[in-house]
Amino acid sequence: MFRFIPASGRRPGVTRPHLAIAAAVCALALAGCSGGGTGSQTSSQLSVQFPGPPISLDPAKAGNGGSAMFVSLAYDPLIFLSGSGDLAPDLATKWGFTDHANEVFELTLRSGVTFSDGSGLDATAAAASMNYFLHAGGGLVGNVGPVAKIEAVSPATVRITYKAPTPEAALTLTQYNGMGNLIGPKGLANPQSLLTSSDGTGQFIYDGAGSVADNRYVYKKNPHYFQPSAQHFDSAVVRVINNPNAVLSAAQTGQVQFASGSANTAAAAKQAGLKVETAPFFNWSLNLVDRQGAVSPALADVRVRQAIALAFDRPAIAKAMAGSYASGSDQVLLPGTDGYDSNIGYGYDVAKAKSLLAQAGFPNGFKLTILTESLLDVNNTYSQAIVDALGNIGIDATLHVQTTGIAQFVGDALSKKYAAIIFPTAGTTMSQLDSQITHGLFNPFGSADGQLDSIMQQAATADSAQARTAQYQQASRRLQELAWTVPIFATQSVYYTAAGLQNFQASVLNPNPMPVGPTADLSWRLK
Predict the structure, then answer these.
(1) What is the rounded distance in angstroms from the CA atom of residue 400 to the CA atom of residue 418?
(2) Cα–Cα nearest to 243, from 370, 394, 86, 378
(3) Where are the beta strands (DSSP E) in 67-203?
């Protein structure tokens, strides 16, 4: 019996796919701008800011987070994730699992849709695009789950078969994860052409001839878009601006109607009459990755890790770091996400922390080298605040700052030379956070916990959102006991929008909203 998910309403209690580290960095600086309401009246141009060029204009090789902007303007996803975190029909009108193991997922496609190459959307074309994504070598392929097979089972039905339970299937097919952004047959036949002209079904068509690499990316209105009432602009341009003061100036002077802001320039933006929008995003954490004590023997004792977790006056640190644009965080998930438990969390207790260290055999503390970076923590003020707090419980911490880029930072993190790493997590469900904390730079030594694994396996096969949330909360409690990752404060994504911008919404469930959606009310507009 089919268990189709309703094609609108609140998102299911599952997960958005886990973020790759590079994607988390891309998502730091969000971009977007203008448009969306009712009717078909259009403004002349949607102008948005983004801090860097696209990873790729081929949807199968593109980035996610804020950099999804470059693809979303020209390509529709199967399922749309709104700024409030709701799932809405886009190229798929309904979807759901057809089994009880959460391994067979089917989507029914919208009729009457054409790609910019003139061909019609059907299940064969959709499956071809999705299979291309799996083998194109893009950085998001790990986000879409353990796909075994994708096939067209009828002219309007696509079936995805997974190798293991994948309750987050619907969310892996939104605009942020690549596989759901469908490419037309002509583009698939010549993927190199996608770098100069798009072949999607979206509101715009990429204009390579009118664009300038690393400066501006221009899009023209798609005359064959399936929902003309959602098109509020005749053209769009993404402007590459990365200096915070230049970003503020561009927003103030109307060069862009939407830009990624910062806590440092937000007050000036308000004074200039811009709207300042925010959404919780990065959960800054001290990741105690050497849980077997290979580099730092002290960290093998859970009492030491728990002592470290008690060392931080989180509200005070958050205020000092970013004022009202940050808040203390004492668990791996943020309020409002799936698995957050308001009944748990680390407190602030220096005396208890010192007692735990003494019980573990470290009454005088110990030395600890911590790896950090200067791409997200630009002046290392975040990292230094963490080091200072550790000093208050007797831990002599030293920072090793990687300044040459995120790739080298990740390489250093995976080298097993460092017992602790400062880097934020970002996610909306426990499944997503579990994927981060147990993989990659958050777990270079390969730590595992049978109890945590069992909880997450039960969550993956849960038969209801409520049952899954209960398992996720149990996982939150287990992670607090283990103290593998010690959250300290959460920062907000900051956006500057023109006074007349409507239909913009960002939330903890989607801090990277896109300006185009499948309906008029989900597309931004200028009043």
Answers:
(1) 9
(2) 378
(3) 79-81, 87-89, 92-97, 104-109, 147-154, 157-162
Give the β-pairing of 367-373 and 396-402: parallel
CA distances, 276 to each of 24, 65, 380 (Å):
22, 19, 25
Do the bridges between strand 157-162 and strand 275-288 make them parallel or antiparallel, or are there none, so unpaired?
unpaired
**Can you identify the CATH homologous superfamily of domain 3-274+498-526?**
Periplasmic binding protein-like II (3.40.190.10)
Is the C-alpha dihedral spanning 444, 446, 447, 452 positive or negative? positive
Token look-up 């020209």 returns 74
Structure confidence by residue, pLDDT tens digits, 410-460: 999 999 999 999 999 998 989 889 988 998 999 999 999 999 999 999 999
Q: Is 107 left (phi over 0), alpha (psi -120 to 50) or beta?
A: beta
Query: What's 282-492's CATH class?
Result: alpha beta
pLDDT tens digits, 481-491: 999 999 999 99
Whether residue 454 contacts residue 222, with contact meaning beta carbons closer than 8 Å, is answered with no
**285 close to 423: Cβ distance less than 8 angstroms:** yes
Model confidence pLDDT, tens digit, residues 78-100: 999 999 999 999 999 999 999 99
Say how far apart CA 168 and CA 5 lie, in whole Å.
Answer: 12
For 260, 288, 291, 429, the CA distances from 359, given in Å and listed in that order, are 47, 19, 18, 35
Strand intervals (E) in 387-473? 396-402, 420-422
Q: The pTM is what? A: 0.87
Phi, psi at 108, each rounded to 5°: -100, 125
Residues 125-183: pLDDT tens digits?
999 999 999 999 998 998 899 999 999 999 999 999 999 999 999 999 999 999 999 99
**DSSP codes joined into one string, 459-507:** HHT-SSHHHHHHHHHHHHHHHHHHTSEEEEEEEEEEEEE-TTEES---B
Chain CA centroid to CA 55, Å: 15
CA dist 434 to 1, 147, 449, 460, 521, Å? 31, 19, 11, 12, 34
**Residue boundaries of the structural domains of the chain:** 3-274+498-526, 282-492
Per-residue tokens: 141: 């392929």
Q: Is 150 in a helix, a strand, or coil?
A: strand
Q: Indicate the helix (H) or strand (E) that contains 220.
A: strand 216-221
Model confidence pLDDT, tens digit, residues 249-296: 999 999 999 999 999 999 999 999 999 999 999 999 999 999 999 999
